[in-house]
């Protein structure tokens, strides 16, 4: 619906400017209005019924809408229809050259190129003479003049300064952004988050151990075997701590890569903390950040090696 939206906006602007013979907001800022006296168009300038001021002839207003609004919309829709049309003819070059739709499409494209060339010539003439700012205005003889010649121009560099500041800021960003190592920043944020999550997990494990110890002691006291119960709790705690040490040591085995979360690790490699990574993930992370920490245990990775064969946990 792009051509229709463009058509609606152009019609809205035409209604409040050309149809009412009034300048647009941009023309008002530049102190410009239609020059009804020097414009050489066909028709007589008549006063408005409501305001009594001079207005453009009706035929000029309608022709301006036809040339500036309806004709570009028709060409855009015709070109889109010809491009989307199915080819009922064979795919041979001879039939394609004689296809009516293809010939019409080429004619429309040629007409667009001619209009663009004429618009460029008109722009050069407007920069030299300052009379007709568009091709449709030249065809209809519409010129612009100063609305109030006696108004003194107030020169303000605020708009230009704003543009200069914005362009300087964008150029600075274009220079600095390629120099920023986004991967290192991402790994740094990941390391901080991993350390925080590891601390939270440690606190949760401690709290669970305390709750288990207290619940075991209370159960043993109720059963009347306080010493045995406490010994059992201590034995269980030592066993759990030993198992936790074995899991947190150099023989920790994880099934997924902590960096890419891929279940099938590519060139599986073991870090100094015991967790395993993809070789490319870990090597690139260590190259980007010398103090890279494991996302699972928040331990700094000092070295990495090819993994050894898995061993069973020691018997207690």
UniProtKB/TrEMBL annotation:
Q: Gene Ontology terms, cellular component aspect?
A: peroxisomal membrane
> Does the record's keyword annotation contain Membrane?
yes
MF terms from GO for this chain are:
ubiquitin protein ligase activity; zinc ion binding
Annotated SUPFAM superfamilies? RING/U-box
Q: Which Gene3D superfamilies does the record match to this protein?
A: Zinc/RING finger domain, C3HC4 (zinc finger)
- Enumerate the residue ranges of region (Disordered): 222-246
Q: Could you tell me which pathway this protein works in?
A: Protein modification; protein ubiquitination
Its domain of life reads Eukaryota
Q: Which Pfam families match?
A: Pex2_Pex12, zf-C3HC4
Q: Which UniProt keywords apply?
A: Membrane, Metal-binding, Peroxisome, Protein transport, Transferase, Transmembrane, Transmembrane helix, Transport, Ubl conjugation pathway, Zinc, Zinc-finger
Which family would the database say this protein is a member of?
Belongs to the pex2/pex10/pex12 family.
In Swiss-Prot or TrEMBL terms, this protein is called: RING-type E3 ubiquitin transferase (cysteine targeting)
Organism name: Chromera velia
**High-level lineage:** Eukaryota, Sar, Alveolata, Colpodellida, Chromeraceae
